[in-house]
Amino acid sequence: MSIPSTSVSVTSSAAQTRAAYLSHLLALAQRSETTLPWLRELRDHAAVRVQEQTFPSTRDEEWRFTDLSDLLAVELAEVGGAEVQAAKLAELAKFYLPEADQSRLVFVNGIYAPQLSSLHHLPEGLTIGNLVNLPEAAQQHLQTYLAKQTGAEEVFTALNTSGLSDAAVVQVRKNLVVETPIHLLFVSTSSPALIQPRALVIAEPNSALTIIEDHVTLNEGVYFTNSVTEIWLGDNAQANHTRVQRDNLAAFHIGKTAVSQARTSRYTCTVVNLGAKLARHHLGIHQTGEQTETTLNGLTVLHGEQVGDTHSTIALTKPYGTTRQIQKNIVDDRAHAVFNGKVFVPKEAQLTDAGQLNRNLLLSSKARVDTKPQLEIVADNVKCTHGATVGQLETDEVFYLQSRGIDADSARKLLVHAFAYEVIESIPLASLRQHIQL
Amino acid sequence: MVIGNSDVILSVKDLTANVDETPILKGINLEIKAGEIHAIMGPNGSGKSTLSKVLAGHPAYEVTGGEVSYLGQNLLDMEPEDRARSGVFLAFQYPLEIPGVSNLDFLRVAYNSKRKHEGLEELDAFDFDDLVQEKLGIVKMDAAFLNRSVNEGFSGGEKKRNEILQMAILEPKLGILDETDSGLDIDALRIVANGVNQLAHSNNAMLVITHYQRLLEYIIPDYVHVMANGRIIRTGGKELALELEERGYDWLLEAEAVV
Predict the structure, then answer these.
(1) Residue A366 pLDDT exceeds 90
(2) Which chain A residues have a beta carbon less than 8 Å from that of B117?
(3) What angle do CA A237, A243, A244 make, to 5 degrees?
(4) CB distance A291 to A264 below 8 Å
(5) Is the dihedral of CA B137, B143, B144, B148 positive or negative?
(6) Where do the H-state alpha helices sit in B23-88?
(7) Nearest neighbour of A418 by CB, restricted to B59, B100, B117
(8) Of A10, A240, B66, B258, which shows the fewest CB atoms inside 10 Å?
(9) Helix, strand, coil tally for chain B in percent (to 5)
(10) In this model, does residue B257 exceed pLDDT 80?
(11) In sequence order, what DSSP letters do the residues of B87-136 get, joined into one string?
(12) A397 at B interface, C-beta within 8 A
């Protein structure tokens, strides 16, 4: 019989294509250079992790709804450097935030751009800059944190580490409260390119900071952003983190945010996904001490044929932790949103309180959403809730606005804005909230 | 007030309408002139709310026959937003909550869409603020309400007062109140009714739909219509409401059945 053997050969050729593509990505990643021996060791170790794995397909449970096949067809190249054409500078400046005008780190195609960054009048005790230009003592200290988060071995995270030659670094010394928000602006200008931004944030005990991580583009061509941000919160530290993704509609974006929370630390993350042809963000929260607070606000807005995937993993391993998560998706046309929210509550994590809500607004009959809450609870004295809703704009809602003289189109826009508002409101900077008006 | 030769604002003739292909309105005839306050009463399911929605243009209600003329225009040909801009106002039984849109902004957008329709210049935020401050007293609303999201977290009474505030700003020619009194305590009811009384004058008309006679102690109607089974089965003066309060609807329904 020839049919089974044909199907086997198709499968294996698809597998070969994926394996070849992963090798292509790894080879590209490794072309970036480093002179630091410890970094080279870290990279080599990660490269081995990549080689041990396969490029995901929809047969992998974690990628069931997000098909990366289109990426396989894109032949990527090295990034073209960190230059921004003079003509594009004004366009870039639109992404600058007045509240963070003297606390901005800019990376172009993953490469530090000192001429675009602005670091002035910052408090002593705040270490901010790019990894390779930091004093050697600071670099030494960072080695205990860089690529040490849970999940560092995952294929795209390891791919990022395998090409790690520099990173945005923010470290806040013990007891220091940094009032100025810190803007990490990652710009892509290169195509077709593999762009691998990296950030490391360390909030020492009792410190506090606000971070805006913004992924933007000045480029209309295809590229693949594979970004990793690691955040370490010491005892009683506090971080308010906003992550915005507005890549162009040809781009692929895979992002990882890995957070480690020590005792009584508080982490708030607002994620806004607007861009990319296909975007996947994985937010991993790992609790290492008691009584942590975690607040996750997510908004994904998709049009055309965009795919937007939000995965989150919250591992509550100690007592008295609380988490509040809301993920909102607005899906129009033939776009496709995916949400997978895992919450782990093992036996030790007694008296935890975990709430998760996923709300979806479908604006077209061809729009699609796949939502999968996934709570694994072993502890017996906990409060865990989850919910998922899928809805459309109701005729009654549109009619109410029409009956006040507002035309149907404007009424729909206003209602979409109202749906998104809860998440947009949690962005701590007014200027950024303005940028993200839908 | 009934004024002999005042203009006809609304004229409804043999109006029939379906909801989900079920006939609800089965031949409504109604004429409302400037200066008049009409009340429509009737048991649940009689079609009172449907009539208000049809007049305001709700797309889920399908008009199957009859005519509605509003200030000489064919109302049924107009989009809901155009009806609103032309002066038809429906105060909702269940007003919508709109998170993230301040009450003030919402009022201004609504007000300016009407101004634009009338060929007038839109009011800027400052001038509009003055206008709103002046109107707040009509429904005894605190200015703090203006900065809150539309109806979000408002009590039942606050939502209804907010509807009347919207009406005060839009100054309709025809104000339709759909069970605005339901769920209100007596204080809120007085405030709402008092607001309506301040807004009713010789150039406009009010159509008050209610389940309870109680509201009509505060808003004195010129005409009371009783609706049952999709038709107006009796029309009288304000004393009809009192009679209904005393005797219920059954005697009218029976009389109707006999006819």
Answers:
(1) yes
(2) 405
(3) 160
(4) yes
(5) positive
(6) 48-56, 80-85
(7) B100
(8) B258
(9) 40, 30, 30
(10) no
(11) TEEEE-SSPPPEEEEEHHHHHHHHHHHHHHHTTPPPP-HHHHHHHHHHHH
(12) yes
How is residue B92 written in tokens?
Answer: 């909702």
Does residue B22 carry a pLDDT above 90?
A: yes
**Domain layout of chain A by residue ranges:** 33-289, 397-438
Place of tokens 């198709």: A10
Which single residue is written with the structure tokens 């932790």? A321
Question: In this structure, are residues B135 and B104 in contact, taking their beta carbons and an 8 Å threshold?
Answer: no
* pLDDT confidence bin for B259, thresholds 50/70/90: low
What's the confidence (pLDDT) of residue A1?
41
Neighboring chain B residues of A406 at a CB cutoff of 8 Å: 81, 109-110, 113
| Span B101-129, pLDDT tens digits | 889 989 999 999 999 999 999 999 899 99
Residue B166 and residue A404: Cβ atoms within 8 Å? Answer: yes
> What is the three-state SS of A172-190?
ECCCCECCCCEEEEEEECC
Mutation site for A-interface testing, chosen from B81, B102, B147, B166 by largest number of A Cβ within 10 Å: B81
Whether B81 contacts chain A with CB within 8 A: yes
Structure tokens at A28: 């590209």
The span from the CA of A340 to the CA of A375, in Å, is 10
Q: CB-CB: which of B59, B98, B99 is closest to A399?
A: B59
Q: Which of A241, A185, A239 is nearest to A217 (CA)?
A: A185
Tokens of A9: 């050969």
- Edge-to-edge order in the sheet of strand B231-236: B88-91, B174-178, B205-209, B37-41, B223-228, B231-236
**Residues pairing with A129 in the sheet:** A169
The full set of domains in chain B, from first to last, is: 8-258 (3.40.50.300)
Residue A405 and residue B117: Cβ atoms within 8 Å?
Answer: yes
Question: Across residues B161-178, what is the average pLDDT?
Answer: 96
Contact of B113 with chain A, judged by CB distance below 8 Å, is answered with yes
